[in-house]
């Protein structure tokens, strides 16, 4: 899609940003903290890069989350955009309340044995392997298994093929290319309708029940919510484990520190969230009112991209922001968002990382990257930052 960039970061930084967005972000923070990409005939896209601006705009009601305000703009696969991420109050409040109960910290804490068992089983299978892909062999199956447990996805759909279908919807321009997504959601919802909600973890069953026995949500909202939860429920945490493992391999002193002192795990997880944030840019927002920022005016209908990954490296907020420090305190990063759309899965993401990362480090033993750093395959997703593969070799 041609974009008329009036003046902006050097082309080299723009080209390199999928692999390494941090020099690009630093340029924006320094030179254009509210950077406008003009697009002829279409609303501008603004990139907001400083911590204070990103934090206050994440909670600013002048920014709408409703894509219908931008004519012709479809942020995700057709028919699957009516979920809480793309809603303002009162719809947002209604939809968030329906899923919230499944993610309250007390319920999530009860999943600790499932996390540990699943991680241990996956690592047992890798016991004798010399070459390991931390994403395909560990982070992806672990995080997908867990979100499937919470949602109550039946075993025959808790598969690598289901995961691939979901992931393809992130990296493709999905309009008209939804592929197997809709049949997959049909199969899931039909299964839930046939069996009714079950005891224990079955958020999907509960949502189908709420849809069918009241006016809690429309069919499109049900399908969109199922899609959203399946996707963000694992892709994000998979990226945290992948990006986090890579950061540790690149900083052996910090890796040794964590291995020697498990009490560091809590601050380590927060620092890994900050250092290479799995959700690099906040999700869709557009101006519902004009907004003045750094001498510029964001016009009604313009799209606003809040660069979480940049905010989390802002030296005005984090001393020595480009340094990985697993004991960093305070660490008020924005990796899980801020304000009314703060991540619903925060407790789950933290639990998974806090249990899985130390186990992974211990059971892998000494490893090195199997590829040079600049050849690692980063996925060119719109909002996320994550590796397609993280190949390592046992030393
Ligand atoms: C390390 C892992 C995770 C990270 C970094 C992360 C990050 C985020 C961020 C930044 C937001 C706010 C987006 C915005 O305001 O534009 C968000 C919202 C959300 N996250 Fe997460 N997330 C993670 C894990 C999860 C998990 C495991 C789930 C489970 C289903 C989840 C479900 C959601 C949902 C449903 C929202 C939308 C909340 C709303 O709009 O009210 N996330 N997440």
Name the features.
395 residues; mainly alpha; Cytochrome p450; 3-stranded antiparallel β-sheet; 15 helices; binds protoporphyrin IX containing FE
Protein described:
The chain is mainly alpha-helical and 395 residues long. It has a single domain (11-394), classed as Cytochrome P450 (Cytochrome p450, Orthogonal Bundle), CATH 1.10.630. Helix content is 46%, strand content 9%. It contains 15 helices and ten strands. It has helices spanning 11-15, 22-31, 51-58, 91-100, 105-109, 112-125, 134-151, 160-171, 181-195, 203-212, 219-250, 252-260, 265-275, 308-311, 346-364, and strands at residues 34-39, 42-48, 63-64, 131-133, 286-287, 291-293, 296-298, 303-306, 367-369, 391-394. The strands form four sheets. It has a three-stranded mixed β-sheet with strand order 1-2-8, covered by helices on one side. The protein has a three-stranded antiparallel β-sheet with strand order 4-10-9. Strands 3-5 form a two-stranded antiparallel ribbon. Helix 11 (219-250) crosses helix 13. The N and C termini lie far apart (44 Å). The model is unreliable at 1-6 (pLDDT under 50). Bound molecules: protoporphyrin IX containing FE. Protoporphyrin IX containing FE binds at residues 58, 84-85, 96, 228-229, 232-233, 236-237, 240, 278-279, 282-283, 308, 335-337, 341, 343-345, 348-349.
